[in-house]
Every structure is written in C-alpha cells, then in structure tokens.
Design a protein that fits this description.
The relative contact order is 0.14. The two termini are 39 Å apart. The protein has a nine-stranded mixed sheet with strand order 4-5-9-6-8-7-11-12-13, with helices on both faces. Strands 14-17-15-16 form a four-stranded parallel sheet. It has a two-stranded antiparallel ribbon with strand order 1-2. By secondary structure, it is of the alpha/beta class. Helix 1 packs across helix 6. It contains eleven helices and 17 strands. It binds threonylcarbamoyladenylate and magnesium ion. Magnesium ion binds next to loops.
C-alpha cells in the first residue's frame, strides 16, 4: 500500500501494492513512483497516458505488460521543454524546428531519428522515436520535476478506446497500476497527430489533435501514409480504438433500417436521432468539441445495453479527420 505523508514525501513498497490505484493529484508521490521505476497514469491534453521513465527498460517493459501491448508497437516519448527533443532525437529534419516552435507544447508527435540513449524497447527496435511535448499543466509540472522524459502510450488496454478521464483509466487498468494522476477531462480528447520525415518529405501516420491544415501551413504539403503500401506506423493498425459493441459508420438514416429490431446507439455530430440511445457530440457543430466528447461517447454506448453503435461520418477537415479515423478503426474488426 502507499501512504502519503504530511511532509509531501511518501513511503511505499512495490511488493505490497495490490488492489485499486489511488486517484489523486499528488505530484510528489507520482514523481517518486516514476523515479523508483514504477508506472503511473498521467493526464495529457489529448488522452491519459501510461507513463514510465523512457530511459529505464524495466519500467517501459511494465507499460507493455500492463497494456498487453504487442512488442512491435512503439511508444511516444514525452518531454517537458522544447530543447529536450535533443535528449532523444539525433537530429531534426527540415521543418522540424518550425513545427516545434508552432505546436509545442501540444498534440503533435514528430517521428525523428533516435538517439542511443533511448532503449530499443521504447521504439520496438526501430531507428526512429516519436516525441512530443504535452500541453497539460500537470504533465508539464511532472516532467519539470523529473530528470528523464516519459514514454507513454494511451492508458487503455491494447486495442480499446483511449481514456479521457481518470475514471476511464481506473475502470480498465486500476488494478495494474499504483497511481492515476487526475488532471480532469482531457481538453483535446483525441490522440496527437503523428508525422514522420521519410528522407525527402513529411508523412502523416495518424491524424489527431492538430489539424493537418495547420501543419501544412507551416511546412507545406504532408504526404498521406494511409495511401502508402508500407505498414509504417503501428498506429495505423486497422482494428484499434475499438469498443466491444459493433460499430458502423455512415449516413445514419440510411443505416437505421438495416438494424431494425435492435437496441441502437447513435453517435451524431449535432442532431439527435430517434433511437434507443443517441449522443450528439457537438450541438453547435464544433469539430473540436466533438473530438473532445468522442471517446466518452463510445465508452458510454459500449457500456450501455445497446446492441449496435451507428456513427455519422464527420466533415473531413480540421479535427473531423481524426474523428473519422478513430470511428473507421472502431468499426473495423
Ligand atoms: O496523444 C497521444 O499521442 C497519446 C498521449 C498519451 O500522448 N499517446 C498515444 O500513444 O496515443 P499510443 O501509444 O496509444 O499511440 C502512439 C502511436 C503508436 O501507435 C505508434 O505506432 C506510433 O505512435 N509511433 C510511436 N513511435 C513511432 C515511430 N518511431 N514510428 C512510427 N510510429 C510511431
Ligand atoms: Mg493508443
């Protein structure tokens, strides 16, 4: 068990941790656990992450175990200031510094040539590393208190929807980790945009919290990895972010007759539809608000008695691109 003491320190023993994670906001306890080589859940502006000292192989291994994540899916390394990119990356390709200046701290992950200091387990043996500087104030305070960066995937069991509240993390991983740092509901709500430099151009591996249009305004056009033959980013695994309830994406009114007689849950952009359950992600039609509400809505419908989830297709612009990407993967099994 873990006991926070009044002077801000804490005593804990690895061996006797069992039971549910503590949910709280005690940064010194979290920093202490991480220095001891333990893993903890932390808030970021995108989704909650399951964090370990990126330079500690044993700690990173626990992340893979707790998530039941396959060893071929590399982790993103989180740094507390822009200049710390150089602690994990060998060099910055053309445009990288401009992207860092424009978007860090924030939901943009750059895939860069890796330094040897980053253990192979973090990157699953490949020569590049995904790096970002998160914008959540608690994540930044924590990183500033540590002298190492944090490797952190989303804090969900592999393949399931990412968590956007501390309670989401507790529901699924609470018995496997000692502490969940509670930073409230995530403001962005979908994971970071991931881009990588492939010798002569930037390639989009995963649409996310920074709109592609905003990135292209800084570095010019970004190639679409989805159209490539290469299975470049494991973030491109088709069945990812998937609820247990079957999901179908398309025009709601056209889909409805196919599921007549079933308890239907609907995820729509702005309008309510007549169904067993319906969640409109943004009544005012704001794509950022819709992205913020997406994963909570998927979880809510998945844990309800709905037999099928129907989701509307969103405008393919701004954060709509990330929403469509996650819904498409939720629908693929
Ligand atoms: O917003 C986010 O990015 C969240 C928060 C916690 O920071 N993290 C996150 O991590 O979404 P994760 O592990 O769920 O997804 C990271 C994706 C992986 O699917 C992986 O394929 C890709 O990033 N990735 C990491 N390193 C890579 C690399 N070197 N090359 C290509 N893809 C990489
Ligand atoms: Mg994930």
């Amino acid at each position: 068990m873990m006991h926070a003491s009044h002077d801000g320190g804490c005593q804990l023993s690895i061996a006797d941790f069992c039971g549910m994670a503590t949910i709280g906001n005690d940064l010194s306890t979290v920093a202490h656990l991480l220095r001891e080589g333990r893993i903890v859940a932390i808030p970021t502006e995108t989704v909650y992450g399951l964090a370990a000292n990126a330079f500690d192989e044993g700690a990173v291994l626990q992340v893979f175990e707790a998530k039941q994540r396959p060893s071929f899916d590399p982790l993103i390394v989180h740094v507390g200031q822009q200049a710390d990119v150089h602690r994990v990356a060998r060099e910055l390709p053309p445009g990288a510094q401009a992207l860092i200046d424009a978007f860090w701290p924030g939901p943009l992950t750059l895939v860069l040539p890796k330094r040897d200091a980053v253990p192979d387990i973090v990157t699953c043996g490949i020569d590049t590393v995904g790096v970002r500087m998160p914008a959540h104030p608690l994540a930044l305070q924590l990183l500033h208190a540590l002298d190492f960066p944090l490797a952190a995937p989303s804090a969900n069991p592999f393949g399931y929807v990412s968590p956007t509240t501390a309670q989401h993390v507790a529901d699924q991983l609470g018995e496997r980790i000692p502490y969940i740092l509670d930073g409230g509901p995530c403001e962005v709500g979908v994971e970071s945009t991931i881009i990588g430099w492939e010798g002569d151009r930037w390639v989009l591996y995963r649409p996310g919290g920074i709109a592609l249009e905003a990135i292209e305004a800084v570095i010019g056009s970004v190639a679409d990895a989805v159209k490539q033959v290469l299975p470049a980013a494991p973030g491109m695994l088709e069945s990812h972010y998937a609820p247990r309830t079957p999901v179908h994406v398309g025009d709601i009114e056209a889909l409805l007759p196919r599921f007549a007689g079933k308890r239907i849950g609907i995820i729509s952009f702005r309008e309510a539809h007549a169904a067993h359950r319906c969640v409109a992600l943004s009544e005012r039609g704001d794509l950022s608000e819709a992205a913020r509400n997406l994963f909570a809505a998927l979880r809510e419908l998945d844990s309800s008695d709905c037999e099928v989830i129907l989701a509307e297709r969103f405008p393919e612009e701004g954060l709509g691109r990330a929403i469509n990407d996650r819904l498409r993967r939720a629908a693929s099994r």
